[in-house]
Amino acid sequence: MSQHWTRSILALAVIILTPCVVNSHAPSKKEQPQKWSGPGTSQNLRNILVGRCFHYMSLYPDVGQKNCYGIWDALINAVYRKNPCNITEEDYEQLANVTGQTIPCDKTLLWSRTNDLVHRYTKATENFVTLEDTFLGFLFNGLMWCGKTSGPGMNFKSCPAWNACDNNAISSFWKMASATFARTSCGVVNVMLNGSTDGAIARKESILRTVEIPSMDPANVSEVKLWVIDDITGEDRNSCNSESLLELKKYIEEHKLKYSCIDNYKPVQALQCVNNYDQAACNQCKYQ
Ligand code: AVW
To answer: Whose CA is nearest to atom 25 of ligand 1?
Structure first.
């Protein structure tokens, strides 16, 4: 009889307690990461970063021995358990330290509104280095990431879009990377601009204007040389003597930097002509 009662009490306890045990593992509403307007963290982010790190070291041994797993640790220290709209450039300081690299003088190539052309150009010549060709830029180019306040780990569902908030995980990273790149540049710093674009040659809120020009050290940078490149098939809306360029010249000089400008720099035009050889600009020397 007493055995029967003991079994009944045990069974009752299991029925009552089971939902509590199950519920303690189910995430409460409070623990759900916030929903943001941009895409979430890139799938396999850690593997991509570690792979790119080893790849870069094999392509450019001059970068030295980097701790590829330490780079991941520096990233998670910057964003884990934090609101992705509250990440500052300072949060990425450790990441900047573990990815440090010396770029030789006269090699820096900045850009605005020429993302595709400038990178085709540096691939073709290897005479210049854009931010995306540096170790840090190469690692993170095209990737998304952000943490969540509800716990460790990345938010794979959504992250703030670039303009969603001032101090977001992505824009603060690129501002930090751009500032570091410009601050450590020396000699002639080249800038590829788009002469066919509508409106200002560089947006007022562009990284070039707001971060890179103010970060250059006039003691180390001998000249900022703008290349104004028109689409080979498009309009010539801006050139070195147009209003937008003169305004940018003034802005550069206000930062105590020397300025020069060149229209349709020939080596870049030659690259444009690879796919557009029948355009007038590509046929300057015709042999009859
Ligand atoms: P860009 P930047 N919203 O061609 O001078 C979304 O104007 O700014 O050139 N994405 C943005 C925004 C924004 N408001 N602003 C910038 N981006 C991102 C680093 C986006 O990925 C290099 F060293 C866009 O495609 C260059 O010298 C890209 O920035 C300089 O910064 C370019 O915008 C180029 O930046």
So the answer is: 115
